Amino acid sequence: MGKVLIIGAGGVGTVVAHKVSSVPDVFGDVMLASRTKSKCDAIAASIGSNRVRTAQVDAGNVPELAALIRDYQPDLVINVALPYQDLTIMDACLETGVSYLDTANYEPEDEAKFEYKWQWAYHERFKAAGLTAILGCGFDPGVTGVFTAYAVKHHFDEIHYLDIVDCNAGEHGHPFATNFNPEINIREVTQKGKYWENGKWIYTQPHEIHKPLNYPGIGFRESYLIYHEELESLVKHFPTLKCARFWMTFGQEYLTHLRVIQNIGMASITPVTYQGMEIVPIQFLKAVLPNPGELGANYTGWTSIGCRIKGSKNGKEHTYYVYNNCSHEAAYRETGTQAVSYTTGVPAMIGAMMYLKGLWKQQGVFNVEQFNPDPFMEQLNIHGLPWHEVHHADLEMD
Ligand code: NDP
Description:
The chain is an alpha/beta fold. The chain has helices spanning about 10-20, 35-45, 60-70, 85-95, 115-120, 125-130, 145-155, 180-190, 230-235, 250-265, 280-290, 330-335, 340-355, 375-380; strands at about 1-5, 25-35, 50-55, 75-80, 100, 130-135, 160-170, 195, 200-205, 210-215, 220-225, 245-250, 270-275, 275-280, 300-315, 315-325, 365, 390. The chain has two domains: about 1-135, Rossmann fold (3-Layer(aba) Sandwich), CATH 3.40.50.720; about 145-335 and about 380-390, Dihydrodipicolinate Reductase, domain 2 (2-Layer Sandwich). The protein is built from 14 helices and 18 strands. Strands 7, 8, 9, 10, 11, 12, 15, 16 and 18 form a nine-stranded mixed beta sheet that branches. The chain starts with a strand and ends in a 7-residue tail after the last strand. Bound molecules: NADPH dihydro-nicotinamide-adenine-dinucleotide phosphate. NADPH dihydro-nicotinamide-adenine-dinucleotide phosphate binds next to helix 1 and helix 13.
């Protein structure tokens, strides 16, 4: 039995806390810590049975984190706070000799830049300390990397084309809301598009390339090429890839709101002075938008996220599509959150389980696709994210 410290009490933290508590033979002791302790207490109370201890911590403060970790002595820290805190939490883990797992790569607060270089630079230090860091263990990044590794292991000799397709066909009833932290989400979807082709990155204007894609059980949805962080690690770890892209669905209403938000300067990350106080427009916007962790109650419909892969097997071209469909209503019934938080929190719990069971315990800093995908895939089916495979599918890759 292991001991985990979860940092971050938002939508994703809620799911991780629920899920680890539901597997007591693996997670013997659980602590949830975040900036606002009352949020941790509310989550712990909703789980009940005194399964989850709570604490207050500023995850940007290494000495504070190290003191908490020393006091609690977890086997693993699960970071589901914000990407800005990745490096301070990794520093605290190194200082206290504890392994680390997260769901989003580090980005500097003053620049929307998604790169693994900062966290990959910790590899030698984690290795020398005999510790493991598992990066990007949500759904995307996360399950998408595991899906790709599974495809390579079982269905291909070489993979050449990868399209990661992410559809949210749910309805939450708000004119505009983001499905995870609004600040991080808006930074992600308003940046330039970028994809991998023939050994180099191709850049596009935001949302310049789009087309309808057919999602299983959902139908056609307009899908936009955006940059997503797992593309960087996947083209590194699977160098046979000639092309790797990421597609996400957006509704017209969402895009119109986004355009207005950008045009009036509310998506800006540059501080402005308002009534003598310095505020960051996008952070103020977060304060007035619906809380993603509380969208679940009236959310209906499904998410569908998967990998469409083309490559070769026994000298012949092979096509393969592996995906999960997740119901917002079912996610809400189980954890009180919507499917985007759910599809992120469940894989984080499974990644932690892989570490505690010794199945993903190499020394150093790793992306999920570098580990054995099989036991992780097995647990997805058990813990609420069943996956489906289609061979010889029309991958709509043109
Ligand atoms: P939320 O904004 O709902 O929650 C973030 C939590 O982190 C809040 O409880 C917040 O505290 C806490 N926090 C923020 N700053 C600090 C700090 N300095 N010290 C301590 N705690 C802090 O975000 P989500 O739950 O929606 O997302 C969590 C993470 O999951 C993000 O990194 C996001 O990028 C990632 N994610 C990954 C996905 C994937 O598939 N890989 C998909 C979706 C999200 P407070 O309550 O006080 O604000």
